[in-house]
Amino acid sequence: MTINTYPKLTDANLDVELIRLWISQKSATTQKTYVTISRQFLTFAGKELHDVKLEDILLWLESFQLRGFSQNTINNKLAAIKSLFSFGVKTGYLSANPASMIKTTKAKDALNERLLLDKEVKQLIEAADNQRDLPCRYAKRNRAILILLYILGLRISELVGLNWSDFQPTEDSVTVTIFGKGHKTRTLLITHQLWSELKQLPRSDKTEAVFLSRFGNRLDRHAIHRLIKKAVEKAGINPHTSAHWLRHAHACHSLNNGAGIDLLMKSLGHSSLAVTSRYLHVQPSECTSKFIDLD
User: Among this protein's residues, is 155 annotated catalytic?
Assistant: First the structure.
């Protein structure tokens, strides 16, 4: 357990005040996630952060294991609590960091289980386009959402945040400015044909958002999850398919079609080539098993 050697840098006297400071410079999505996780933990522990011991954190993590949560989910929760305690110590609010004693358990890489085939992506887009229970304008909106998620490999938060001013037509294509994870900006490209389709979507006086709800507000991530679930059911593909599966499909399909790993890293907005390299091993084209013959 790390003993605090930091001067007190905050006037926070309550856990809720520290948590507010902790999340203040993080993205809106991360803020919501971290607040939820910290509340879960404090409710489980039944005590203030100053009084939390190593056993409290270990028992909390074990409770997720007993309920069948994936290791990735557990690791994400642990990472949030580690960050909270580290922040508390560095600001002088806490005197020790019990979370520093816990090592993260490496999870199985199940990326290959979350990969859509080219034909499945097309089925999904067609299903969104042919939802007869929706007005035509919403079907076109849903189709455009799925196309952009796939061809640009966007995170759902990046898609939700798209504004009309992010699109700039050029002679050969249309540039799209993406405000991504960690407040990083990258520029991607779409065709003029897709831009023409996007321009047919309704606009609102309330917001510059590209994708709108029926009330003219920016469409939120929960609405996108729901529309994807409906399209998945109609398409008859893997029921676990989500928006992030389209990002995975973009990565694997672009590599299979000759894209370089460096270009993919920049397009996806990854900070490390090691993260992008995972996609190289999902569908290997070469393996020494080809050289083994039992006959």
Answer: yes
